[in-house]
Protein 1
Amino acid sequence: MKNITSLIDTNVLINFITKREDPYKNDCLKIMELCAENAFEGYIAFHSLSIIWYVIKKQETEEKARAWLSNICDMLTVTGATQAQIKEAVKNSDFHDFEDCLQDKCAVHANAEYIVTCNAKDFQLAKTKIVTPDVFVNIITEERSKT
């Protein structure tokens, strides 16, 4: 089986953790199940951890928040970006959301084939191919069926 590499956007992980109502809720759960099964090589941008921490801490204790982050770091490889890539992101006014630009830079740094996000429209200028959770689940499922 081809080892597909993907950066998982913050919103996919927040949907997974909080089980919030979202059109991709079930697909977000499936993505993390597939990740736990090593069906693909998953990455998380370093800065996503602080966003996830902030969201979890609104609902859970610090101990539970740390446990979630630890589990995520066990399932996904944390990636960053070079200083030059970060400076490019700072100068890039094409992205509506700076955080999304950072996601793209981290995906490039990790050599990810895909960024999996619930907000594909926010990544129109990304250098990495963007897929929604449902599309990504289909990609992995099709790839697994080839073996």
Protein 2
Amino acid sequence: MYCTKCGKELGSEYEYCDKCGTKAGSAVLPRLPQTAHYNEKSAGLAALLSFLWGGLGQIYVGQLVRGLCIVVIYSILMMVTSVLVLEVLVGESSWPGVAGIIVTGISSIVIWLWNIFDANALANKYNYHVIRHGKPPW
């Protein structure tokens, strides 16, 4: 049994709480279970991590599979773009290489920008759920 005013554990022999003085007969209830405390995720940090490399913000927020998929796709696009740029610079490829650079470069930029906004939105969704329900959404 616990005092409802101060939370001190009371034995059945106590008439008053010896900590706060509340009458035990009217103030004693069973103790409620402790709830876990979850920290909120920083939306700014999630966006910054995704700015530095695609998918890192999603991993930080707890969306591991989503983040790893973005990391892999973004890495492949960046490697293909780099190879095409090197081929054009060395002179082994001209127009097809330039077209490939444009396509993969634009794709990389679009995915990179989307990924920054997605990481920010996921962090905000995570925080909203933690505040509202007291536990993470995933």
